[in-house]
Amino acid sequence: MAASFANTQVSGKTATRQAVASRVAPFRAVTGARRVAGAQTSWLFAGQTVPQRLFAVSGARSVSRAVQTVFAVRDGASLEGRKLRVAVIGGGPSGACAAESLAKGGVETYLIERKLDNCKPCGGAIPICMVEEFDLPLEIIDRKVTKMKMISPSNREVDVGKTLSETEWIGMCRREVFDDFLRKRAQKLGANVLNGLFMRSEQQGENGPFTIYYNSYEDGSKMGTPATIEVDMIIGADGANSRIAKEIDAGEYDYAIAFQERIRIPDDKMKYYENLAEMYVGDDVSPDFYGWVFPKYDHVAVGTGTVVNKTAIKQYQQATRDRAKVKTEGGKIIRVEAHPIPEHPRPRRCKGRVALVGDAAGYVTKCSGEGIYFAAKSGRMCAEAIVEASSNGTKMVGEEAIRNYLDKWDRKYWATYKVLDILQKVFYRSNPAREAFVELCEDSYVQKMTFDSYLYKTVVPGNPLDDVKLLVRTVGSLIRSNALRSADSKSVNVSFGSKANDQRVATV
């Protein structure tokens, strides 16, 4: 410990380093020394108050300054007198579930979130398996969707959901309610929830702690007050524009812009959407995604998204509203939301003692655009790996523990992401291909396989004979779609999207 105070200065006669070290050895400074606020006669070492007189040796009258010393702790080493400290940046489903698991596992946890009333522009759909797996109360679920309509570019409507049992449904939530519940539960379990905006972090040596710099809004100020905390690890759960991802050079990736309007519609029209969700496909609503009308507590959420033409997002949103205007007529917009959505996992998802989860890691599926379940699951899996490797917060852990989480994640969900990526490339490439996709959705076997995979988050093995039949039907649908594309290119009377909807409405 002599090196800890090699530069300690004393007023009056200079004390020897050996004498100082021998007097303060019982108070090994893990996080450095600082004067206790409001006290004139003591210093704080690793959370223990040390009388200032211990520094007055060899005739020295007082200590005028103690140089802060940080001790690096290697992975696997026991933490004496304290717990492992982890900062979770971002309080959405991934961050809140990570904080919950860390706190339950005995880790000293800090959850930093700027917008505690965050309303992310998200469809808000969750699979039924998530309710039990994450012990969610039914009160935070606005609607139980048991029916869906897939609506093609030419406005052909296909009813989806006929294979669902009476106990199966898709939950619809408002993110401001859903996320708030998860954060408060983490807080009750011991996580420190801080209303703040993360600015940057600095690591003090290769195995040293991190200093988190953030603006605190705990006092209700709009500008925020600069503040810091010191931690051993960081979990980046701060979304598609993650600052943590930038700090670890996680790499660039494609992202979509999601745009959504909350619309309060008349009661008779809301009755239509009581347990029904709609999905619209077509070049008019999105060149590479879909538009949606999802029921919420007392309103509907109407939205769309795109990767390839972000500047036209409002045009696509208007087209989605046009397609649904008969069913939402007379509605009043009560909220407008927009947010980036990742399109694929980042090239790097961890570095040293820093991990990425949720949207920050890129865990949103293609084709369906689902992200809530995978965000929450990734946060939990990452935290559980840290808790296990640290023996409930009593040991230092590093990149090996994080990579264990990533390996488990990739083994469990790689096939799901790959299948949905292929489906998007095959069926979202043109309006005729989307027509073929909607046609296939009418098939009972397709519906059963789709819902079983979605509701229970597994790639369900199919019946070999039915799989062959499905392949034949898929090829047939694609052939017809290509024929339709050829006909469309020759200016045959084929119309799609909003224009087709106007024509259909005019004849009603």
Automatic annotation (TrEMBL):
Residues 84-375 form the FAD-binding domain. PANTHER family: GERANYLGERANYL DIPHOSPHATE REDUCTASE (PTHR42685), GERANYLGERANYL DIPHOSPHATE REDUCTASE, CHLOROPLASTIC (PTHR42685:SF4). This is Geranylgeranyl diphosphate reductase, chloroplastic. One of its GO terms (biological process) is chlorophyll biosynthetic process. It comes from the Eukaryota. It catalyses: phytyl diphosphate + 3 NADP(+) = geranylgeranyl diphosphate + 3 NADPH + 3 H(+). GO terms for cellular component: chloroplast thylakoid membrane. Catalyzes the reduction of geranylgeranyl diphosphate to phytyl diphosphate, providing phytol for both tocopherol and chlorophyll synthesis. Its EC number is 1.3.1.83. GO terms for molecular function: FAD binding; geranylgeranyl diphosphate reductase activity; geranylgeranyl reductase activity. Pfam families: FAD_binding_3. Belongs to the geranylgeranyl reductase family. ChlP subfamily. Keywords: Chlorophyll biosynthesis, NADP, Oxidoreductase, Photosynthesis. InterPro entries: BchP_ChlP_pln/prok, FAD-bd, FAD/NAD-bd_sf, Geranylgeranyl_Rdtase_fam, Geranylgeranyl_Rdtase_pln/cyn, Geranylgeranyl_reductase. Pathway: Porphyrin-containing compound metabolism; Cofactor biosynthesis; tocopherol biosynthesis.
